[in-house]
Specification:
Helix content is 79%, strand content 0%. By secondary structure, it is an all-alpha fold.
Length: 325
């Protein structure tokens, strides 16, 4: 094995991938996953071409079918990733094999990344297997190949981010079920609470602006606050990134342009114009940060170091008290 292959080779990834592929449950997951998408696609095309309700073909309906398939696939990935990753480390602990895994020559970072990439590989396999269904829209037009590639990249990055939350929860929590619940809660915070927080900031900002304008006697339409920077927290929100991608693909302008104007501006134009790319980069950075925390939690030497520091502190306190006596 060459030097680069040794660096890229991860035994945990290889083992987890083999176990998942050989499991009949995963084959059934792929089957039913694609059957659901095929059923929706067939129903959509039946309504579009053969319903007889219209004398013409509404091509906007075909675009709506693509959007429906993309949203459905994204939601299904959002449900599957936590179930794959939340039990990755907690399951090893419950089976009492985690200690054996930690005695190998692998670093904790290699273990957590192996677990994450094995789960993400399964999700990517689901996405790739469903691309022929989504690409049916190519037969009508209105969709470019780059749009489909954008969706694949978006799903991969979002799966990495949600999977990292699952691995961290699985490392921090000893049981699989609580880790799964915590993972879903983290995803809700990531996708929902960040949007709600911006809504609260917008409402409070409007109340403050109305009071300031009332006291100063300015017109109600005169803007005094620029709340646009509050939208930057949405860079780590995969749902907002998905909406931004879909709106840019079919409307020419994204969601952020409208929100930035509503919030009074304040975001640099380069961020607004390249929101999709910048948001993916931010989500990758957050993924690496969460995985680093998971690796630290899994490190058995961390506990020993903390115990040694505690003993040194106790001995230092004891020596000081002895000297005072």
């Amino acid at each position: 094995m060459s030097k680069w292959k040794k660096k890229l080779y991860n035994p945990v990834y290889v083992k987890e991938t083999k176990l998942r592929v050989r499991n009949i449950k995963f084959a059934l997951t792929i089957l039913f996953y694609n059957l659901i998408l095929i059923g929706i696609a067939v129903f959509g095309f039946e309504v579009l071409f053969n319903s007889g309700m219209n004398d013409y073909v509404n091509y906007g309906t075909a675009i709506g079918l693509y959007v429906a398939l993309v949203v459905l696939e994204s939601v299904m990935v959002g449900f599957l990733v936590p179930s794959f990753t939340a039990g990755s480390i907690a399951g090893e602990r419950e089976k009492q094999t985690l200690e054996i895994l930690l005695t190998t020559t692998m670093k904790p970072s290699e273990i957590v990344w192996g677990k994450l990439m094995a789960s993400i590989s399964m999700v990517l396999l689901l996405v790739v297997s469903s691309l022929p269904v989504i690409s049916i829209v190519f037969t009508i037009g209105g969709l470019a190949l780059v749009d489909l590639l954008q969706f694949v990249v978006l799903v991969f990055v979002a799966a990495l981010l949600m999977g990292s939350i699952g691995v961290w929860a699985s490392t921090a929590i000893k049981k699989t079920v609580p880790a799964t619940v915590f993972t879903f809660a983290g995803i809700v915070v990531l996708c929902g609470v960040t949007a709600i927080l911006d809504g609260v900031i917008y409402i409070i900002g409007n109340i403050i602006e109305m009071n300031v304008n009332h006291v100063s006697g300015l017109a109600a339409s005169s803007a005094t606050l620029h709340l646009g920077p509050a939208l930057l927290i949405l860079l780590i929100n995969p749902v907002v990134t998905l909406i931004e991608m879909l709106m840019c693909q079919f409307r020419g302008h994204g969601l952020i342009v409208t929100l930035e104007r509503t919030f009074g501006g304040g975001i640099p134009d380069i961020v607004v114009d390249h929101w999709f790319v910048i948001s993916l980069i931010c989500q990758l950075v957050l993924t690496f940060f969460i995985m680093k925390l998971a690796a630290k939690l899994l490190d058995p030497l961390r506990v020993k170091k903390s115990r040694k520091k505690g003993k040194k502190h106790e001995s230092a306190v004891g020596d000081g008290s002895g000297q005072r006596d």
